[in-house]
Amino acid sequence: MGYRFSQTLVAMLVMLLTCVSWAEQALQDTTVPPQTEQGLNSGTDMMDADESNRVVAPPTINEILDQLTSRSFDDKEAAIRQLANQNNPRVIPLLNALMNRELVHNRKDDTIALGEKQDGQWELRDPTTEEVVGHVDSRAARPVVINNRLRTVINNQLALSGLNDPDSDVRYQAAGQLIGNDDPEMLTALGERREQESSQRVLDQIETALNIAALQSDDLTARLNAIDALSGNLHPEVKNSLNSRLSVTDNASETRALEQALKKIDARISTFQTADTVFFGLSLGSVLLLAAIGLAITFGVMGVINMAHGELIMLGAYTTYVVQQLLPNSHEWSLLIAIPAAFLVSALTGILIERFVIRFLYGRPLETLLATFGVSLILQQAVRVIFSPLNRTVITPEWMSGALEINPVFSLTYNRLYIIFFALAVFLALLTLLKRTRLGLQVRAVSQNRTTARALGIRSERVNALTFGLGSGIAGVAGVALAQLTNVGPNLGQSYIIDSFMVVVFGGVGNLWGTLTAAFGLGIANKLLEPMAGAVLAKIIVLIFIILFIQRKPRGLFPQRGRAAEE
Amino acid sequence: MRDSTFKGALSDRTARTFMGVLFGATLLVTLLNQIFPPDSALHVSAYTVTLLGKYLCYALLALALDLVWGYCGILSLGHGAFFALGGYAMGMYLMRQIGDRGVYGNPELPDFMVFLNWQELPWYWHGFDQFWFAALMILLVPGLLAFVFGWLAFRSRVTGVYLSIITQALTYALMLAFFRNELGFGGNNGLTDFKDLLGFSLQSDATRVGLLIATAVALASAFVLCRWITGSKLGRVVLAVRDAESRARFVGYRTEHYKLWVFTVSAILAGLAGALYVPQVGIINPGEFSPLNSIELVVWVAVGGRATLYGAVIGAILVNYGKTVFTGVMPEAWLFALGGLFVAVTVFLPQGIVGLVSQHWERLRKRFVKTGDTDDTPAAQGEHS
């Protein structure tokens, strides 16, 4: 309650400041611009209003408010309507205050004031200036009583003023609120607004609202036109009102039109639901891609089975957490530090693993598998000892939360959207590195034929260490992204390792494009199966599919050709 | 050269020593448990008896893996799945034996099914009230799965790392499946609360000792069987497949048939190990399918020493004893120790403890070094050719 009130207070303060600045402008601007019909749209119009008020001397805001002291709801309604018609920035906060029972009737002098209860007393403020005008006993004042009818009136008036707001977002919301409203006054206002509205988005909302209202029209052609216009519209209210119209109509052509419109809406909804599934599939695919792409380097290019890959991802995620702990006040951009930091941490760990373990095991892939599995156990346990076995939460920055709403049934959450782009960016960066740089050339040379590469003067030991570091570093970067989606815990890596291997093997070892295709293909397949079979069963089906697939094509989707492919 | 007949396998010195040590230890524990009263200093508690039985089950499992990995070069990361399937088959029999003594007292349905509001027994639970049927399933289910899986995999020449990864995926998929309540195997909790086996109460000392002896007999028989297989002509072809599969194929052997055969036998042995394990620990749950278990199993074999059979047994017992000690004294350190073991064994001890020991007694154990030589596994030749 207190929070809400202070919010209102702040809003009022802002309004007050704007008001003051307008007044100053008005004073400076001595020439009076010609009157326009448009009313509240801009600051200059506002000044006209002030000017004209001064000339005709209409009732002031406070005078109108004082009519609310009446006991009759009809009188109050008249007062509310009169208040709403004032071109004054105080109107909206005052209407809101009335809704929130913050407008009180001071019985001592029979006036209306803004009131806040403090220690059993009312602190009264002037409705226009918000200056404190005094304190009265809690019994001496009482909030203005409103009923449901008045609430509707106030809401409508608020929506109406929102409809004429200079900010198109406010207008969009106001128009959205009026969808399904059949008050003739609102409809007139919507109709007027339609003539001058410039934003297509707002215009669409207004059309929807008007067409829904037109469904109740007595004129058949008007109804048919409205049905036609609403056909395919995804607003939930549209489907409801079309359905309710379908249940009352007895006209054959209207029934047919309604059924068609509903069918079209259902078709569009199912299309967008599929799009939604595909988006989630892409999102899962991008996670798989991030997790697998480092493995595609260490496993695909170097032939090293790195079972500690998942733990390198986990280290990246923990690095994100540590960076956030070190920079508690800058969650918005600490991710930008976390990405290189995670890369470094994981890459260094990777290089250490390569130098102390894997180096001795080249050419013995099954042994590398066991040794790196041992490393993964050590890393996991180390994290458990250092950070505790409990999950840690990584804070999602503001710009990554929320969703991009495309229509009422289809929206893209920003974090998933960003991660898809991030995964693609990492993929492209890696591809460029391997294909366009000297290090990439050396890596490919060593992976294709170590002896010849050495004979040509490539220091294969160094290249091995760097390649392994690169693959590990990318795992760390993947950890930063995963930290935004899941809990950061010691088991984070374990849950991705089997999936990552599946992706690399399915795509064809040593082929980055294969990894990309496999990651997105498996991600989408998984999400498409999920609604039918449930999450766990979908995963099992995908696993079995891969097992069978590998038996048909043991080298994956895009097998490597030539000497390097022969075992 | 060893005598390659079954009788030869029974009478060769390694097998005799192995069985001597195994039965000697079992007999000693049995006597100490049965003869001395509980307050005697020489008494061995029922806990120790069960613990030893558990180790022997693990040893049997390790033996099964050594047969495929050490002799055939197939590194299966899914042997835990066969173990667990054998365990589930035994668990289902034990579950049916509970009868109406469960919490809900339903004579037909196990407790978890009553809890899930199931009305009747699923079809695949029928027959498990008979021991002979359960025993058949213990061998048949893992064997059949291994046969089908191996048939698909070996026919299309999935080898090396790829095979390892898909076996791991197999056990992972089974784990996910068994975690589901709908599958009818008790979901997350698995099968537990067993009462008796063939009419003997599982709580009594005598049954525990009996189970230990049964496990020891199973292990010894499996050992002899594996000795016989590896010493036979088929065993030599299997070795050839391990060392140079393409060459063996070109010479005219259907290598996939040999691999499939060994893989299936190994899976059946793993299933048997699981079936002996479950009544001793009193529970079977989907955690047994977890890929970690299967990989840990590989390390037992690696620690002991591959392609020696008894090395696998020694490795399984040593590592598990270490695990029992560590998890009791300092639980945090166990995973460090296990991880370190993985690294140390693969980097410094490629032939395991047996290899280390045999280096010192080279003269005495010359023939073991020959079979234990792992430097020319197909893995060593692959990838960097």
Describe the structure.
The complex is a heterodimer of chains A (567) and B (385). Chain A is an alpha+beta fold and 567 residues long. Chain A folds into two domains: 2-150, no CATH class; 272-402 and 414-565, ABC transporter involved in vitamin B12 uptake, BtuC (Orthogonal Bundle). Chain A has 22 helices and seven strands. The longest helix of chain A has 50 residues, at 252-301. Chain B has 385 residues and is mainly alpha-helical. Chain B has one domain (6-380). Chain B is built from 17 helices and four strands. The radius of gyration of chain B is 21 Å and the shape is globular. Residues 372-385 of chain B have low confidence and may be disordered. The chains are: A alpha+beta (567), B mainly alpha (385). Chain B: Keywords: Cell membrane, Membrane, Transmembrane, Transmembrane helix. Chain B: InterPro entries: ABC_transp_permease, ABC_transptr_urea_perm_UrtC, LivM-like. Chain B: This is Urea ABC transporter permease subunit UrtC. Chain B: One of its GO terms (molecular function) is branched-chain amino acid transmembrane transporter activity. Chain B: The chain crosses the membrane at residues 17-36, 42-61, 68-90, 131-154, 161-179, 209-229, 258-277, 297-321, 333-357.
Strand content of chain B: under 5%
CATH class of the largest domain in chain A: Mainly Alpha
Largest interface: A-B, 48 and 49 residues
Number of helices of chain B: 17
Which geometry of chain B do the CA atoms define? Answer: globular
Class based on secondary structure composition and strand pairing of chain A: alpha+beta
The total count of helices of chain A amounts to 22
Keywords (chain B): Cell membrane, Membrane, Transmembrane, Transmembrane helix
Membrane topology (chain B): Multi-pass membrane protein
InterPro entries (chain B): ABC_transp_permease, ABC_transptr_urea_perm_UrtC, LivM-like
Pfam family, one (chain B): BPD_transp_2
